[in-house]
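Re: that chain you flagged

S.,

Sorry for the slow reply, it's been a week of failed gels. I finally had a moment to sit down with the sequence you sent. For the record, here it is as I used it:
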Amino acid sequence: MTASPSALSAGTYSGLVTIRPSGLDTVTIPVTLAVSDVQGKLLVSQRGLSFTAVSQGGAPLPQSLGVLNVGAGSLNWTTRVSTFRGGDWLRATSASGASAANSLIVPTVDVTVVPRNLAPGEYQGQIEFLSNGAVNSPQRVTVSLQVLPPGSNP
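Prediction finished late last night. Pasting the C-alpha cells below so you have them in one place:
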C-alpha cells in the first residue's frame, strides 16, 4: 500500500484498509496520514573544514561555506561558533543570513582561524547553523586545526 499526499493540503487524514482473504475473516485496519506544510531545509556545502597553521606564524587563508535552502520558502539562519579547547581561535564572518529555496544566489560564510596564541597540537571546533524554519536544524560543520611547531613548513 502506498500513500500519495502530493495533492493533499496540510492536515490529518483518516481511512480504513480492509483485507478480505478468501476463506478467512475480514480484517479492517485504521490508517492515519499526517500531511505537514512544506518547510525549509538547511544544506551546508561542507560537513567539515581543515586548517593547518604554524605556531608563532600567520593565519591560514579563510575557507567558505555555502548555506542553501533545499526545501521551500525562505530561511533565516544564525551561526554559533564553539571550540573544544584553546579558547577563541575560530571565527565565522556571518552571524546570520537568509537562504531562499530555488535561488541561484547562495549566501556564504567565511571561516577563519586565529592561531597566534596556540601551542602546537590538534584543535577542534564547530559551527552550528540554526533556523527555526528548517525541519533539520541545527546543521553542524566540524573544524579541525593542526598547529605545527615554530619554523615548520605547512
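What I noticed first: The CA atoms of residues 41 and 71 lie 5 Å apart.

Talk soon,
D.
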